[in-house]
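Inputs:
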Amino acid sequence: MLKLHNMYKVYRTDEVETVALNGVNVEINQGDFIAVMGPSGCGKSTLLNIVGLLDSPSEGDYYFFDENVAGYSEKQRSEIRKKNIGFIFQSFNLIDQLNVAENIELALLYHDMPSAERKQRVADVMDRMGIAHRAKHMPGQLSGGQQQRVAVARAVVGNQPLILADEPTGNLDSAHGQEVMELLRTLNAEGTTIVMVTHSPAHADYARRTVNLFDGHVVTDALRAA
Amino acid sequence: MFWNNLKIALRNLRKNKLFAFINIAGLALGMTIYVLGGLIVKYEKNHDAFFANSDRIYTVGSIAAPELNVGIDQLNATFSAVGPIIESELTDVEVVARTLRREFLVTQGDNSFYQTILFSDPALLEIFDFDYVGGSADALNDPSSILITETTAIKYFGDTDVVGKVITLDNQHDFYISAVIENVPQNSHFNSSMVLEGQLEILAPIKALGPLRDFDEAGEWNNLSLGNMTYVMLPAGLDGTWLQTQMDGIYDRLLPEDQHEVITAFLIEPLQHANLAFWDTIGMPVITVIQLLSFLVLLIACVNYTNLATAQSLGRSREVGMRKTMGAGQHQLLSQFLLESLVIAAISMVVAIAILEVVIPLLNNASNKAMTLDYTRTLPWLVLTTVLVGLCSGLYPAWLITRASPIAALRDEARKGKKGARMRSVMIGVQFAISAFMLSTVAISYMQNQRVKEASYIFPKSEIYTLARLGIDDIRGRLDTLRNELEALPDVESVAFSSQVPFEQSNSQTGVAAKPGDEAGAVTLMMMRMTPEFLDTYNIPLVAGRNLSRDMANDEFLSDETEVLNVLVNEMALGQLGIASPQEAINQRFYDLDVEDTLREYVIVGVVPTQNILGLFNAEKPWVFFYSARSLRTGSVRIRAGADFMDTVGAVEDVWKRVIPDYPMQGRFLDDVFNDVYKVLKYMNMALGGFAFVALSLAMVGLFGLAAFMAAQRTKEIGVRKVLGASSTQIARLLVWQFSKPVMWALAVALPAAFFASNSYLDFFAERIESPIIILLGTGLISVLLAWSTVAGHAYRIARANPVLALHYE
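Outputs:
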């Protein structure tokens, strides 16, 4: 599904050059549930941003469904992103001025989709996530766990085949964290490919494969025992 | 998408009520001033358009010769002799008509009022299609006919059906009413003069002026007064340029030689310009200034909004990042943010319109105008203004916030970095530059006005009660009695009569020379006809010689045949006549150049100091003072300082009623005479002050909002500095300095610009303030202090906060 080949990402300021990814090679197959782990500053988030087409690599190839997207412009990346990738962030990134249903609908807003269909899909996904009764609530009125559920709903409402989660449980207590992980596991079971950055070995256990990064290198890439 | 964006826009307003209020209040204020300015300009520029022939009507004015030295460059009036010349010389012209303003006591039964009557050629009614309630356009053909407006008819008769009824002028001359017309709308030059009093109420045939005031219908070459108009209506196909060329020819061929020193050309202007001619007369582009200032205020309001919106929008960086992550393109986000600024602009415009609906009637009342916010006509302009304001002021913040990459936006890098910092400084600079520019010009014009006012204190303005309209023969015969009786009042110090009083803008001049008939050595002197009490009444001291007297031979000007006349002159006249000192001047002679039959010899018997009798914008001039019982038009009653002025005025009125019962008294204090012109300067300063106040307030609100934002943005830096030992004062100073830099730059641009701009105001005055640069520096300092005080409170509060909190927050 996705293939990163000999990928580098270098951040340059006037005097300092920081290598965030240093020749990374990773292949992600359809249906994978991958946990990306490693210490702070090892390049996890950079990797996720590039996989998610939020950023472009400095060097190397990135095949997205056999299409090398490494040199694509933001506009081209944006097109691919909205059709194929859903995002979940540690800090939820819900929009304060929109209620739950509207926040979820946001993910469909930039697709050419009739309003009625959008509303239907939002209603369906809220049912699936068990947050239908919160549809009119504003983010500020929800607990962290509930907010992350909304964020997950927003990530899946477009039926994107790939979900990228950047420490999705980082701001949650263990109970709520577990709840979100169960949700991801269910999605993966239904066929969605998931790539998740996490610090938590317990939550990494939900994944079927773990990629460990250190100083921009992939140090291990292993399937977990079932 | 549109509704979704609209919903977010409205929710954002609700969420950030304080910023929403500041934004809307600022824009609404800017829009109010801009729309009001636009309405005023449109109103003033669209006078007289309701006359059917308005686009074919032109006025004949005059360009004043510099040697005339009356402080004006041009006026839209000319000599009354010009009209008949046009009629006989320019056969292609369709109609020519003149109007001459004269004042009469108009009486009907018990109703008596002084009224300005426009004496006009009958053809005036062909040029202007008035609406007739009774009578018709031939109403001025009969020399004993008179045309009045509805209001005038009701004022005298209580009814408009009055054609054929009689009214009397100056208690002697009967006129029958030949027509009644509907009141001429307020937005006509007939009714909207800045300085000429009154409305168009009565029209009378110019022929009637012969018997009334000894006026030759063929016109005169010796009187150039505002309000004496000559109108020309051209046939279709000819235009003002053609007429100007023809009038240039008439100037060269037919203008009497001596008038070339009075006017240098005729000035043809379209009728629509007649209303604004006053500003051309005094050489101030007031309408352009209103247009410019109202636009500048709107510009400040827009910059203010842009600045605050930029600061605010950075707080929505994550939202932008999220939307981009989900596939929103920059153009989609741009339209979202622009819609938000359009919504704010629209709300602001609604608020502005509400304010205008209150302000316009008040302004109309105060200024006797009839402006309206006619939505059917102004709606496209209002909508366009709203859209442009919304788009222009929202574009920069929208572009700034939406251009970031999704990652940068999600990480909120914009808020942490210095993104747009330079642009924000530039915007603060622009705001302060405009405000300081306005403040400086206000300060300079205020100081100049103060100077004019202070200079006026040479005469005891508030102690002199003036009596106008004494120039009627019937009254002149009773002036001695009036003086005697008034001087007998306990609180009256003295009573003088004169041809004009100080500050009255009348330039009566005579040409004289040190040797008889010496045209080459001609000197023009201002003429004051007066009774001997004039000097005492006005505290004018004698520098040398004696005052004129009733008892000395040759002191009084008795008739045009007078050959030797004792006069007083001021010191400036001495210089022009080549006399070295006041002492040497006594018994020196000079000669009249204007008299054709009698060579009059003037003998100087006294010298008074040079005083600015016309005051206001005029230069000091050389004056000659005659004692003459003829040509006396005004009285001056000097009331004892400390007396009860109202009681004394009541006593003066009682005396008047006893001595001159058949004419109402027209009295007012000299202060009011001064204010006739001074009020124009004062109102201009007030209007300018209003603009400056709004501009400066907006700039300060913007600065305050921005200071709040910037302080919050530097929370971490402030925390670190405090941990490292910086004191609150040092931190506050740091923040204040951050805002001082753009303000300083702004002043460097604004003050020189204000210097040049205010020069165009000062140019109007012969005696200017000496130190505009000190005033400019003063206003610059005030601007900086205001900026500091706006920011300082905020900075100090932030600086005093606990550093741990600051770091924790970050």
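Remarks. The interface with chain A takes residues 1, 4, 7-8, 11-12, 15, 318-319, 321-329, 332, 405-407, 410 of chain B (CB under 8 Å). The mean pLDDT of chain B is 87.
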